[in-house]
UniProtKB/TrEMBL annotation, chains A, B:
One of its GO terms (molecular function) is LPPG:FO 2-phospho-L-lactate transferase activity. InterPro entries: CofD (IPR002882), CofD-like_dom_sf (IPR038136), FbiA/CofD (IPR010115). The lineage of its organism: Bacteria, Pseudomonadati, Pseudomonadota, Gammaproteobacteria, Pseudomonadales. The keyword Transferase applies. It holds the Pfam family CofD. It comes from the Bacteria. It comes from Halopseudomonas phragmitis. This is 2-phospho-L-lactate transferase.
């Protein structure tokens, strides 16, 4: 089956920035050559629904259903159910669009019937005619807990309800130690034919760290023959969207792409940074590509994707030579 | 609490016809003087949601949220979620409106959290500012099974998916024997202050029979001091809506209000029939009121409610005299 064939490119993604680059890669690669491992640390139960925000964002983005204004949720969305839920006194701090609800209903129903998140995501991607393999990082729950000055918060409480306002002391990827990383992700990393692993410009601490916290995942990333490159989410020392830079400051991490390189450290063969951070380039201890990382439209996404694949291609030769000599 | 006070009138209801008369009674009675026992034989699980169509219809009708064109569902409804569910390949034979979905989500979530259907219905009625007590017939599942020439069908499969087309051989109120009838309904029937029990012009076989099949319910109805009157759902020997007359023919029951009287038999002190069936009046073995039972607008609902209460008031005196002599 085409969905089971070996991908040429493996991307790690979470959030809106991640989905944008994944979309760029998806747009320029032939069908079924892209596999995306998605963060599920943001997943939560809400009104009896299993909500996987990062999977949804990716499915909507790749199928062209995403709301272009927000980057999350669906285009042409309406909120009649939400309004009626409020009228019934139900929690209304998490926005559930009428169209979006179908995804949560379908997923929750199928989970209760015994399907795995991986199976369901693959099914939903097929229904939305997506010709890429989307792999949740794990079928086991690994809910991110945010330790803040307002107490320990579930991720969505911190992120949506509290709008990232509390100061973060630590992040905890609950259950990661005992979780089984997606076999399809580990298998892809071992493939000889894999040409690139691209860590998308997602929040390194909230979106990518949960994936790397899974047993064996970081090691698999270190051992893959393909070059591993990360795209720094910082532009002008700020995150385009979301609390990356705020969290870095709160965790006493210097807000710089150098810190991003350091975060991925031993896994990384190359870093992609924005023009606005180019003065860093010569100070970094690894190959660095300077380009435009701000994705304001589809062309930007495709150009960044191209740049990443070319960069990976250069690095691949070097990596395999090193490997041959080591 | 006002919601706990004794009702003056107890109505048994299911479906659109039942909700219309219940609404008439609700409109003319002072707050909290009406209690409505609702059929839950139509309840079913769909896409992980617990759907109680007759409770929903009643809640929407009494709160003024019902769709006036259909009688069921909500006014100003839209179907974006349904459209997205179809896109995801989920079952779409049962219409779930975007606003309506909130009711199912709220109920399903609260059931999973351990609340009873009775508690949830009371909560929802309060949220919708309904000043009447709405009592699901039981908190135990009593799903109606329809034995047809197309096999045994779950009620909603027969009713919605198959549009009542298969020929009915028998109706089965599954689990009724072991179900606990709503204590609040039995208690109301024992109240000295109860002035009338009104069996609404619902489908006697699909909407009212499940209530009467609950252990002790029929006996409580026989023993109540209040007069029990039924409003025949037939006008011109046809049901206004739904398959009542079709089912009567298929079960070899004469399509006549006389058969309705016979169906309720020992429970009944009086029958209300439509002008179109008035030639029956002198042939029936019990007091009969002939009036307009077709409820095309709110005035019709109130007039029929008034007629029922007046009729009950006349019957009450006679019933209590008989009781004194017996």
């Amino acid at each position: 089956m085409s969905t089971q064939s070996c991908p040429r490119v493996l991307a790690l993604s979470g959030g809106v920035g991640g989905a944008k680059l994944a979309h760029g890669l998806y747009s320029i690669l032939p069908d079924w050559q892209l596999q995306i491992v998605v963060n599920t640390g943001d997943d939560f139960e809400h009104l009896g629904l299993h909500i996987s925000p990062d999977i949804d964002t990716l499915l909507y983005t790749l199928s062209g259903l995403a709301n272009p204004a927000t980057g999350w949720g669906r285009d042409g969305e309406q909120w009649l159910c939400m309004e009626a839920l409020s009228q019934l006194g139900e929690a209304d701090w998490f926005q559930l669009g009428d169209r979006d609800l179908a995804m949560h209903l379908s997923r929750s129903h199928r989970l209760r019937q015994g399907s795995t998140l991986t199976q369901i995501t693959q099914y939903q991607a097929e229904r939305l005619s997506i010709q890429a393999r989307i792999t949740p990082m794990s079928d086991d729950p690994v809910p991110t807990r945010v330790h803040t000055d307002a107490g320990q918060l579930d991720f969505q409480h911190y992120f949506v309800k509290e709008r990232c306002l509390p100061q973060v002391h630590a992040l905890e990827y609950t259950g990661a130690d005992a979780a089984q990383p997606a076999p399809a992700a580990l298998a892809a990393l071992q493939e000889e034919t894999l040409e690139a692993v691209i860590i998308c410009p997602s929040n390194p601490y909230l979106s990518i760290a949960p994936i790397l916290a899974l047993p064996g995942f970081r090691e698999a990333l270190r051992n893959t023959r393909a070059p591993v490159i990360a795209v720094s989410p910082l532009v002008n020392r700020k995150a385009i969207k979301g609390p990356t830079d705020k969290i870095m400051r709160e965790l006493s991490i210097q807000v710089s792409s150098a810190s991003i390189a350091n975060h991925y450290a031993d896994c990384l063969d190359g870093l992609v940074i924005d023009y606005s951070e180019q003065t860093l380039a010569h100070t970094l201890p690894l190959p660095t590509l300077v380009t435009n990382t701000l994705m304001q439209n589809n062309d930007d996404r495709c150009q960044l994707a191209h740049a990443c694949l070319n960069f990976a291609s250069e690095l691949k030769q070097a990596k395999n030579q090193n490997r041959a000599f080591s």
